[in-house]
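Newbie here. two chains, one complex. Structure please?
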Amino acid sequence: NAGVTQTPKFQVLKTGQSMTLQCAQDMNHNSMYWYRQDPGMGLRLIYYSASEGTTDKGEVPNGYNVSRLNKREFSLRLESAAPSQTSVYFCASSEEGTLGGYTFGSGTRLTVV
Amino acid sequence: GENVEQHPSTLSVQEGDSAVIKCTYSDSASNYFPWYKQELGKRPQLIIDIRSNVGEKKDQRIAVTLNKTAKHFSLHITETQPEDSAVYFCAASKSGNTPLVFGKGTRLSVIA
């Protein structure tokens, strides 16, 4: 059981470049989430998907888009990267809502120069 | 929406002493309160959680207490060990499909 798998683990982008962060879970969870973690700011929600076919904005959605490709996969796209998007990105999944808490992926450390 | 405040931001204790981290939340409808531990360079991992129908929950050296009237909950770690050194996050949410809102974290250092 891999749990939640994120790729890539590290990425450096130039300002204006685009990229997609991939996330997949094998726990048959309904809900999936993308958070960003910045020093002193905790974990802030970017987007989430309560179930396959639905997505909703979180606290900091600007500059990002998401796709819930199927029940297993939830991707995060940066269309035109900015230095303010330098962060560690975590994907997470959970059963219906927050029952049982989240399982996090190992994170993607993104640097935009 | 929900707002979660966490204190202190840093905490240093001597090995064997107790550590207490406190969180307050704003939405009285919140009813699920987990705590996560994040070691350096690792992912956050759930260590304990509590739901609003109980006031306290224990798991070996860690415990969480909840005061719904005052809208605050706390993490208690007894007999601290160096491996307890990490960043701890509290969070809150309503049941159903409402995402967790996290506090800003507490960096706990246990000094041997």
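Moderator note: Chain B has a mean pLDDT of 94. The interface with chain A takes residues 6, 9, 32, 34, 42-46, 49, 89, 93, 95-105 of chain B (CB under 8 Å). Thread marked as resolved.
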